[in-house]
Amino acid sequence: MKIKALSLFLECSVEEAELESDYVVYTDEEADEACAERIKEDLWAFNSDFLSGATGLPSMVFKKLGELCENGNEAVLAIVEKTCGLDHVVQQAIGIDGRGHFLSSYDGNENEQEFGGITFYIYKV
Questions:
Q1: d(Cα 16, Cα 36) in Å, to the nearest integer?
Q2: Which of 30, 92, 102, 117 has the most other CB atoms within 10 Å of its CB?
Q3: CA 3 centroid distance within chain
Q4: ∠ CA 36-75-96 to the nearest 5 degrees?
Q5: SS3 27
Q6: Which tens digits make up the pLDDT trace of 32-63?
Q7: What is the pTM of this model?
Q8: What residues does each domain of the chain span?
């Protein structure tokens, strides 16, 4: 069903859509899960003021941890989990930027295509 939804979105044949590697297609639930995972992996790169507002800690904490790049992610995640919780940060981030910001490295867009009574979410990567 995902390939058919992609073919409709791209206005191409199913065979052409099967060869397409520049797009990912998710259900709503799958998109939420993929977005949460991406956010969890990239917390070190988040805006320090955003993390400060979510956790109640000074933004300097997150600025310093962000300087460690990926090596600072485990510490940021631990802080988030001990304060406001990862789910809270995920919901706030999605509310501000949308899932496309996290799942579409190409243009940040989230595209919708309905097929078979299901809405699929398509991201160009």
A1: 30
A2: 102
A3: 21
A4: 35
A5: coil
A6: 999 999 999 999 999 999 999 999 999 999 99
A7: 0.92
A8: 2-124
